[in-house]
Please model this.
Amino acid sequence: MSEQRGNIVLLLFVPAAFTGTCTKEMCSTSDDLNYYNNLNCKVFGISTDSIFVLAKWKEEQKIAFPLLADYNKEVTKLYDVNYTEFVHGMKGTSKRSAFVIDKNGMVKYAEVLESAGDIPDFGKIKSVINDLVF
Model:
């Protein structure tokens, strides 16, 4: 994230590529990418999937922003958004979460969802980003 200083950043953690809710969230965010670009907000998706899985998911779903692999679960732990245990015994998977980070690297909005079936409140997210810009 230090490379993004000077930019507003929307960081979206998702539990697993190719799942219904994660695909819906990433595709709808991709559809809204012009909105974020017009506010000079950089959008990143991140999950504990491998770089290979994320590359295939990005290609197949035409996700228009970078997807970051946290395969070793380091960033997920730093943001404290890891499930102790997810479905099918998977451990350390990212909780669905959204963070808005200002130009100075300070978190201005954080939403961590316990239910993987829920979607972040993009109305609030957009309001926070607008407040940072205007």
